[in-house]
Amino acid sequence: LLEKFENPYCLVNKADAFVFSSRYEGLGMVVFESLAVNTPVIMTRIPETLEVLGDEELAIVVNNSTEGIYTGLKSFIDGKRPKSFFDFEQQRMNSLNIWESFFEK
Predict the structure, then answer these.
(1) Which among 46, 66, 92, 102 has most CB atoms closer than 10 A?
(2) CB under 8 Å to 22, separation ≥6 — which residues?
(3) List of residues 6+ apart from 86 with CB closer than 8 A
(4) Domain 9-101 CATH superfamily
(5) What is the pTM of this model?
(6) Domain chopping of the chain, boundaries
């Protein structure tokens, strides 16, 4: 890509998979953006992202190493697929409940 895209989702949607190979990240929003357009995710083990993801079966989760990323890519090429559904509505409700709990007496 040689230019800025206002809406990269059309590109992510056309990808066979999205590889999130970060060594460190807070919440990897791009993982959820990829899941939102039904693009399978291969990702390194980032605790903050996995905590929100809630289920390691929603992505191919690998060790944070060259070998781990290779293993994840090979698994994907060999036909392994994560579950394709992340329940965004359930996550929204969970977040709302946590937020509202701060204001309960």
Answers:
(1) 46
(2) 28, 44, 46
(3) 32, 35, 36, 53, 58
(4) Glycogen Phosphorylase B; (3.40.50.2000)
(5) 0.77
(6) 9-101
